[in-house]
Amino acid sequence: MSTITTKDGTEIYYKDWGSKDAQPIVFHHGWPLSADDWDTQMLYFLEKGYRVIAHDRRGHGRSAQVSDGHDMDHYAGDVAAMVEHLDLRTTIHIGHSTGGGEAARYIARHGNERAAKLVLIGAVPPIMASTPTNPGGLPIEVFDGLRKSLADNRTQFYVDFPSGPFYGFNRPGAKPIQSVIQNWWRQGMMGSAKAHYDGIKAFSETNFTEDLRVIDISTLVMHSKDDQIVPFAGSAPLSAKLLKNSTLKVYEDLSHGMCTTHANVVNSDLLAFLKA
């Protein structure tokens, strides 16, 4: 396996496909998944001539199930270690959901000089949870409920979540795709229960406002108004406004998991942005 070891001794797994001379794309996966969630995009962009890279976040997938460091600062630091190890430059970073927060923090803290473009898809910035300065966020009780479901019966939770709101299979007339649900469960169960439990705080309570303000590379913000996991109104328009050089792409009725259910749409829009 391809792995690096970070300064705190954590082993991070990554995939690296394509010519080392091609422009690199780094994909940042959502919670509680793995690099495998990007397989469709990686194959698509590999065929288009890009070098494609995706890692398993610490505690997720094939990376080490360490006890600590399940927060955005460590996530971003792990990405920085991988990027430096591979000596990636003029890199495009694409982050989905929690991975969007990870990508934004990485670029703000470590990667402005190495990064060329950024894409946030259904991403958690600026901040998901309701706070005195973010009264429109989701109540903390929503995230407490996720923690309880995970702690009580993680394997059932990891069936219910993709069967319902993640892919929009709970919408009237929607037809659940069992292989997609099973693949979500597979990826989730590969990871550490503690990493996933701690990660809920990381993706819901981290405030990315200042990160977004300092990012000056061209950024595409993609989000659906029917996203049931990261509500549109509290995320994408606010992120686009905070970013210095952003384009907001809005979908009406796609799910949070649109990279899987509507990969042809997402891939086409991504390619257009990368080529612009």
From TrEMBL:
GO MF annotations in UniProt: hydrolase activity
Domain called AB hydrolase-1: residue spans: 24-259
InterPro entries recorded: AB_hydrolase (IPR050471), AB_hydrolase_1 (IPR000073), AB_hydrolase_fold (IPR029058)
Pfam families associated with the record: Abhydrolase_1
Keywords noted in UniProt: Hydrolase
Record-stated family: Belongs to the AB hydrolase superfamily. Bacterial non-heme haloperoxidase / perhydrolase family.
Name of protein: Alpha/beta hydrolase
Protein source organism: Phyllobacterium salinisoli
